[in-house]
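Lecture 7 notes: from sequence to structure.

We start with a single chain of 312 residues. Read the sequence below before looking at the structure.
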Amino acid sequence: MESTDKPYPPELMNSDFQSKKQFESHRASEITIQQGSQAWLDWRKEGLGASEIPAVMNESEYETPLSLWRLKTGRTKPESSNYAQTIGLDNEAKARSIYELDTGIDCPPALFQHPDLVWARCSLDGWVEELKRVVEIKCMGREKHALTRAGQVPATYIGQLQWQLFVTGAKVAHFVSLNPETMADIEIVAVTPDMAYWVRMIPAAEAFWKCIETDTPPAITDRDFLHVEDEKTVAAFTRWRRAKEAADQLEGLLEKLKVRSKQEAEKLEAARAEIKELMVHPKIKAAGVKVIKVRRKSGETLDIRLDEGSQT
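Now the structure, written as tokens:
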């Protein structure tokens, strides 16, 4: 991981944040609101939290940028917690206690707000003030917990951790996973700021927040579509696709014919001019073509047509 004592990379110079302050002078504002209270819910709604960043980055298992935008602008209502979320909330205190016992350090929950981008916020499961350390607690299934045993963080949580590091200015976050089999021991993965990820994350978050402020929906992703496989729907969609492909093919051929027609028209005019110079008699035929000189008030012209009786 790249050291956070260095300024942000040049790629962030177009970011609103970069023009204001470098990392070394960053001091986040801690917010004194009780997590879970109505005041906390209101505070979360007025900003972009760490748990929402995976959706912003289109890395969430449950949300897309568009579905998150609809939720934060009040177009949809929050869904009830699923089983995994309920288990996580119920066991967060247990995992925190195990972490505090194993490390000998208290890590109470905390709220932070970025000093410059005031809409950039995070609600931490734990914060170690003396070490400026973020603690993120998860109670996951066996497969994801196995990743932490190998020193890895599941991809869907990377954005959440990097946002927490960005908002707080912390140099390390501990990703704590409670063992789903024993519910009595934990795995800890240390995570540091990833500047390569921030180059994508910060501008994406700024762009998404502008969508919130301007009430403009973000781009639709493929994951926003409902994938349907019932026979009737598939048949109807297939008929449309085939008709569309045929129409597009014919349209392409028509465009080619238009170009060819223009080219042949130019050749006709060139040949007419050449024939005019060769008209040594008012009526000439050759190569299956008849030509007659016609005199009109506007001048002399040529009547050129195919000789239908010719075998040439």
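DSSP finds eight helices and ten strands in the chain. Keep this in mind for problem set 3.
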